[in-house]
Amino acid sequence: MTFDRAAGLVPYLKRLGISHLYASPIFTATSESTHGYDVTDANEIEPAIGGRAGFDRLVKALKAADIGLIIDIVPNHMAASLENGWWRDVIEKGENSRYAQHFDINWSRRLTLPVLGDTFETVLENGEIALKPDPKTGNPSFAYYENFFPLAHETWQGRESETLQLTDKAEIATLHEQQPYRLMSWRDAPRDLSYRRFFEVTGLVGVRVEDKAVFDDTHRLILELVHTGAVDGLRVDHVDGLADPKAYLDLLRQEAGADCYITVEKILGEGEHLPDDWPISGTTGYEFIASLSHALVDGEKLTALRKAYVDVVGKPVDMEAELRAAKLLMADKNFEGEFTTLLTLALSIAETAKLTLEEKAVRSALRELLVAFPVYRTYGTEQSLPPASQDRLQKVVEKVKTSVNAPDPQALDFLTHILTGEIAEAALSEAANFRIRFQQLTGPLMAKSVEDTLFYRQNMSLALNEVGAEPLPRAFSPDHFHAEMKTRLERQPDALSSTSTHDTKRGEDARARLYTLTEAPELWAECVARWRQLNQSNVSQLDDGAAPEPAVEWMLYQALAGVWPATLQPDDSAGLEALEKRFLAYVEKALREAKRRTNWGDGNETYEKAVLDYARHLLSSANQAFLKDFSASMQPFIRAGLVNSLTQSVIKLTAPGVPDIYQGCEALDFSLVDPDNRREPDFATLEQQLNVDQKLSAFTEQSVFSGELKQHVIATLLRCRQETPTLFRHGDYLPLIAKGKKAEHALAFARLDGDDALIVIVPRLVFKGIEQGLMQPNTEHWAETEIALPEQLANRHYHNVLNGEALLLEDTLKLETFKERPSVVILRG
Predict the structure, then answer these.
(1) Which of 379, 415, 476, 691 has the fewest other C-beta atoms within 10 Å?
(2) Record: fold of 85-203
(3) Would you state the CATH architecture of domain 3-76+209-265?
(4) Residue 225: count of CB within 10 angstroms of its CB
(5) What is the pLDDT of residues 705-749, one digit of tens each?
(6) What is the chain's Cα-based Rg?
(7) Per-domain boundaries in the chain
(8) For 644-653, how does the pLDDT look when each residue is reduced to its tens digit (9 = 90+)?
(9) At what angle do helices 336-352 and 409-420 cross, to 10 degrees?
């Protein structure tokens, strides 16, 4: 997506009602980058998408349409790539580089570069490394396939020709030892890395943005774009990765100014809130998705769905134990190097403080403390932990002390004192380093344990396995949803309300459909049993068990249920082939992320092939018995899911928060996890089908299945937001309670700001209520169901935002008044 192509979409975005274009990183990134988060130059705009000139043309088009611009910035990391001039300079000059302190590198040893397919010695022996002139500079370098690693000048200066002629392996090895860096196998990175990386990605190196000089160097262009008015807001990527998020945000606010809209990518745990003293508008909205599940999940039937899943798996599932196992895997293996760094620091602090502690006891205590953390991190500074973080830490420590895996209490208290700063003065500096690095590890450990391991291992309900969701079983209720919205209005009314992002596990409409499985768990279980039987002959029996195993079969059918295009027919071979390509990529990723019988670092080709062949068979045109059964069985789930899609869109556009509409999600999006959810939408079709003046009565069943109705409802509500912005930004949130025959099938609330009022009524749990079709009038749907209106809303004139109908409401709103399907009611008065 170039700047000029984006500028071409501005008229459509304006018609849709968009206030701001929200762009992923626009700065120069590695060649062929598909996302821009691997920045190589933070002070240059990516030439491949139009450079500064193209950017300026986009800004001009946006301003002409009165549309603002929000950009994504990446202060936590940059690309550890030879294309990054700063990183290349560090490779060549080591600690003497001007940028040596820009990156979070441990300079007590040589810089590790995990770029080889094997150890340096093996690669050298195999003749895969040679000394050659760098094609760009002509200087001697270690050539490894297409990569040329520069040699430190002092190791060849004045003898360039002699150096390039070295062929003896011992001499080359000696030359390698003289460099400020060490070429190593990528496989050794988890346990032997000299720099902080982004999560498990060794190609992304941590940046020390806490240093003012580094901040200035990495934010020069960002702040210029803000100060010139080209950019109106900033989205801060992975704020929890920073050494001191609050200090960074304070500085960013100071430099960007009071009017710049700033949000942070931050996962909030259950009951967790942003620190009150962060000078920002809020998060990017993952917690909003978690809140929505309370509105759309049938909490009363989750037990039945869980039982069906356990019956297929063949054993009870202990989610506490599963979560612990996933975290232990991360602490012991995937983040072994980061764990070892912390352990070494702790032991050094003990020695400095003249404390006698066994390494084994400290190791165990550190492990248990990391594994027990229920949120991404605390927010201690170099000096100490703030009160809220101290309270959080103490609760975690008490939990660890009383657990069945309780470590040595003295060792645990010692670590606690390091984190709180209650340590000998001589060890305070080391303690500050430990505190910061501990906090920078708990976030990645949590994310990779939950989102990228547990959520691929336990698949009872894929809709609930979403970024920001609580990993342990919980109760679901509309009351909880209402409470969350009231809190949202109070604490972060200007935060983004997301339903899809480039990081969500599936598109919002796939998730909306999969919520409906909680309404019909017995039916779903019967379907899975039948489909497993139909495809039983394609299960392979391997030495380590069946492939796919029953739990994976369950996952495959549920994932397929979510991604199945609403209008796909079993005999559409081209459609099936297109779906198969996307589905197989997802299955491969899901198997590797689960880390059960295969993983990214140590693949099990036999197992993967068997499961992929099974998945391929599911979508084979020759497998008509299954495809016809699957397609027919999916119809009620598809219809109910489409209603859920409308419900969650309406809630997002009317509840507290700023609605964030991910590309293409103004219509239907049944994407799987990235990279599937990063495919470019069909903007031509989206532009063509948008008719903001069309009457609701003109929409047909096909309009629902095509996403045209969803797009129309969103456009209508966006206009409504523009007409009364204060109502949506600051208006009170009033939960409304339905009573009567169909009470549990309605979710209602109001927004109130002075004389402006909005009443929102949306359907929920409709699986058994739409047999007559999505757009067919159904006078019985809301029979004997009503909502008592509080005094502020009663005895007022309203009009229905969606169809223009005028009505006078007294103190009761009878839902059977509204006969139009799909029974979404938005009254403005």
Answers:
(1) 691
(2) Maltooligosyl trehalose synthase, domain 2 (3.30.1590)
(3) Alpha-Beta Barrel (3.20)
(4) 21
(5) 999 999 999 999 999 999 999 999 999 999 999 999 999 999 999
(6) 28
(7) 3-76+209-265, 85-203, 323-451, 513-634
(8) 999 999 999 9
(9) 90
